[in-house]
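anyone seen this seq b4? input:
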Amino acid sequence: MYATQALTQLVPLAADELDKNKVTPGVLGFLVFAALAVGVWFLMKSMNRHMGKVDFEEAPDPAAQPGDTGGDPAQASSGAGTEAAGTKAPASGKG
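predicted toks r here
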């Protein structure tokens, strides 16, 4: 409430000095922009730290058998034959 009262007190003073041809954001605009830039920098730094902790290793496909050399090698590598054989791999990989 005090900030709005202070701003309403300053608005009539600024109206006398306002140049209609040159309106700039001023110091307050710069401070807000700088605060946003610093906030984004800290968020990116935090995101990089969290992404560095991620240890992702893709689990092997349970439908693919490692010793299976028979059949078409293109279907074995792409997994195209899993639905045709009647076994459907789980979408989430958790089972």
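The helical segments are 2-17, 26-53, 73-78. The longest helix spans residues 26-53. kinda curious what u guys think
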